[in-house]
Amino acid sequence: MPAAREALLDAAYAALARRPWSAVRMVDVAASAGFSRQTLYNEFGGKDGLARALVRREAEGYLAGVDRALSGPSDPRDRLTATAEWTASAARDNALVRAMLTGCWSERLPVPRVVPCACAVPARRRTDGALPSPGDFVALVRDRAVAALSGPGATRQDPADLGRACELAVRLALSCVTAPPAEGGVADLVREVLARRSAP
Predict the structure, then answer these.
(1) CA proximity to 33, closest of 58, 1, 57, 63
(2) Would residue 46 be called left, alpha or beta, if left means φ above 0 and alpha means ψ between -120 and 50 degrees?
């Protein structure tokens, strides 16, 4: 029931924008999405399962945005700059993304607990694993950037230098999440740092 699942996650996200996660009630999420509370429990197993699925969906949305940024302009520096800008804007606009990237979870947000699940429902099994840590996100984005920038038609570069340049851009973007620069500052910072390097 993918349509129900997405509608329930949308309703949970909207409820989280209005109140702390501890005050979000399953019955209200279900009603807002136009489904029964039993449907919500069938999909997610409970409030912890809903939290895990919601956080995982936001993580996947962030990584999809990274992929879009990396598939953009042909110049590698522009791609890394777009990725850094996306990281900063996604974290600014989405408290769950910001918490995942920084590891700073406020009491307003769901902090998904990992519980072993031998669930018969495949959708629930997929959401029960551990979420990436902030360091895991750095590695995920760095590896995606290296793959995108070393693909067909790319200028041949030392893989270690390319990896360091990509990680530097990601870490610089994350520093801008925790200490935002002036308007337009993320792009300017990344361009300046990458211009001083030989790669990418």
Answers:
(1) 1
(2) left
Q: Which two tokens stand for residue 42?
A: 């069938």
CA atoms within 13 A on the CB side of 138: 17
What token pair was written down for 143? 């590896």
Identity of residue 65:
G
Kindly provide the residue ranges of all beta strands, DSSP E only, lying in 26-161, ordered along the sequence: none
Give the 3-state secondary structure of residue 103.
Answer: coil
d(CA 171, CA 141): 10
CB 145 within 8 A of CB 70: yes
State pTM to two decimals.
Answer: 0.85
pLDDT 10s digits, 28-80: 999 999 999 999 999 999 999 999 999 999 999 999 999 999 998 788 889 99
Q: State whether the Cα torsion 151-153-158-161 is positive or negative.
A: negative
